[in-house]
Every structure is written in structure tokens, then in C-alpha cells.
Amino acid sequence: MLLAAATVSACGGDGDGLPDAQGQNWIAGDGTVAQTPPGERGEPITFTGETIDGGTIDLAELRGQIVLLNTWFAACGPCREEADDLQQVWEEYSQRGVQFVGINTYDTAAVAESFNRSHGITYPSVLDAASGEAVLALRGVAPQATPTTIVLDTEGRVAARVSGPADATTFAGLLDDAGAAPAPAEGAAPDPAGTAAAA
Q: Is cis: bond before 147, omega within 30 of 0?
């Protein structure tokens, strides 16, 4: 089991031109990593959301894959800190039966798209500020901190969560523990089930 813990950091500006998060409704996470044994996991998490580019993601359609959910918004300092690590792990695991889904809790599509372009993020994110459907679906199973990362098993149940920012080693360890497929051998054909397209 993974025993790593993420480093806590406060949301705020760090000289990159994005605004501070002061005055916004966020709670700083303490970096706690929690994992749940398969026999103790609750009901599957379900929600549907519109993506930044106007598509739709339905978590029910991702059953059979390990899903990493990550809450974020552009002015959140820790979200910026972990963005490159998330993208790195996404590139490593996207062909291993894993799908990443960001949950943007505050921004417009234009602001969220600018953040993704700045950090080279290529996995989809849903815009949840208007409906709150995704955050509501996580109520009771996830800390109300930004960022929060949730790893769902192949049945859509919460296998692990991190309250606060984490690094690539932590993300990878949680995905492995949740049952991500082994890395393909060099030169092997990629697994087409590893990436779910947003409809």
C-alpha cells in the first residue's frame, strides 16, 4: 500500500500572473492520503459534466477503467504546483486502463482552457461551477479541499483520495494500488481501452 503523503501548500499567487485565491471559497488540504480496501468501498460515484471544449463526460461510461478525479481552479496555487505532475502521470498511464478527469470548480471555459494551455494539460476537465453536480457527487466521500484527488476503481468506487496537492510518485502509486494495468512492454501496441474520449 502506498504510504506517501503530499505536501501542504496554501492557495495563492506565486508570481505567474494569475490572481490570488483570497476571498474565494476554498479550504487548504493537509496532504492526507487515504486508501480504502476493496471490501470497504462505498457506492460508485456518478456524475455527468460538460467539458471545457463543449463535450460531455459521464462517469458511468468509464466503468472498467481506473479513474483519477482532480478538483482545481486556475487561481489555486497548489493546483498550479501539481499540474505538471498530473500531466506527466497522465501521459504515463493513459494507455494502462486509466482515465483522468479534472473537475474545475470555479472558472469559465476560457479561463480553464488558458490554464490547461499554459500547463500543457491534455486530459479533459468538466466545468462544475454552474451545476455543482460533480462536487455534490463527491460530498461525504472527499475532503472539501482544493485540490483534492480521488482515485476510483474499475467499479467507480473510491479507492483512494488525497486532500491537498500531491506529486507524481503519489499519483502513480495510488493508480497502481487501485489496479492500473502494467506498463506496456517497449514496442508493444498500446491498449485502446486506456483512453476514454469525451463524447
A: yes
